[in-house]
Design a protein that fits this description.
Elements: E1 13-14, H1 19-25, E2 28-29, E3 32-38, H2 44-57, E4 62-66, H3 71-80, H4 86-91, E5 94-98, H5 108-123, E6 130-134, H6 137-141, H7 145-162, E7 165-170, H8 177-186, E8 189-197, E9 203-212, E10 222-228, E11 232-235, H9 238-241
Parallel strand pairs: 3-7, 3-8, 4-5, 4-6, 6-7
Antiparallel strand pairs: 1-2, 8-9, 9-10, 10-11
Helix pairs in contact: 5-7, 7-8
Length: 243
């Protein structure tokens, strides 16, 4: 199990502790805004947790905004992957904001106010070097296109002006295709996660890096992987996934 490393100066590229993923992606530049797109159970959240753990090890502060888990359940999820994030949570380097959407009478007005509150929170009390939105889908489905794009554009400005990194997970089924194109264009990085069937008949997940502006190098930008307890993301050898 890894332990947190002490570093005096944060790097300008966020590399992942997972060497195989890091080889495929090449690191996330600081600043950058990144979109993680995929259906349910395709590995988006586990990837976001890999990013979180890597950022903590390199001395970044992290704000994890979850709409799908409670604070205790998210910490347990990290521990199940052997990411010892609890000490960072206690020290305040790692902060979790659990957003509970149940019981709210959602409409466009309520969603607009939530987007504004979240934006102000991130800029002020919730500011961190790395911010994870996991996921934005529920709020976005109740928002107007104008409000959502305004929110993302403001995040874009925040990222650039404050030298931050942001990751946003979404489910593509919830968005109009034209809106999805505009959302993708706002972001520096765009990754798509899918479930696929291997030649052996086994099920696995796949990751495709479609773009990453400012990355020093991007090679072999597609891979298949499995999520293993105590390990996290395990990239599968090409010999196992080739047709």
């Amino acid at each position: 199990m890894s332990t947190l490393k002490e570093v005096k100066k944060k790097p300008q590229v966020l590399n992942l502790e997972n060497s195989e993923l890091d080889r495929i992606i090449g690191g996330f530049p600081v600043p950058s805004m990144n979109l993680l797109e995929g259906e349910n159970d395709t590995g988006k959240s586990v990837f976001a947790q890999e990013v979180t753990w890597s950022a903590l090890l390199k001395g970044f502060s992290v704000r994890y905004i979850t709409t799908e888990m409670t604070v205790p359940s998210l910490l347990k999820q990290f521990e199940s992957l052997s990411f010892s994030a609890r000490s960072s949570f206690i020290r305040g380097q790692f902060n979790i904001t659990a957003f509970h959407a149940k019981g709210i009478n959602w409409d466009e007005y309520v969603a607009s106010n939530y987007l504004m509150l979240m934006l102000n929170f991130i800029k002020r009390k919730g500011e961190a070097d790395v911010t994870i939105f996991d996921s934005l889908t529920f709020i976005a489905t109740h928002s107007s296109e104008r409000d959502l794009l305004s929110f993302l554009s403001e995040l874009r400005n925040y990222v650039d002006s404050k030298n931050k990194i942001i990751f946003i997970t979404i489910h593509p089924y919830a968005f109009d295709s034209n809106l999805l194109v505009r959302i993708r264009s706002i972001c520096d990085g765009h990754m798509i996660f899918k479930v696929r069937t291997l030649p052996s008949g086994e099920m696995a997940r796949s990751l495709e890096l479609l773009k990453l502006r400012g990355s020093p190098k991007v090679q072999n930008n597609t891979c298949a992987f499995k999520v293993e307890s105590g390990v996290g993301i395990k990239v599968l050898p090409f010999s196992q996934v080739k047709a």
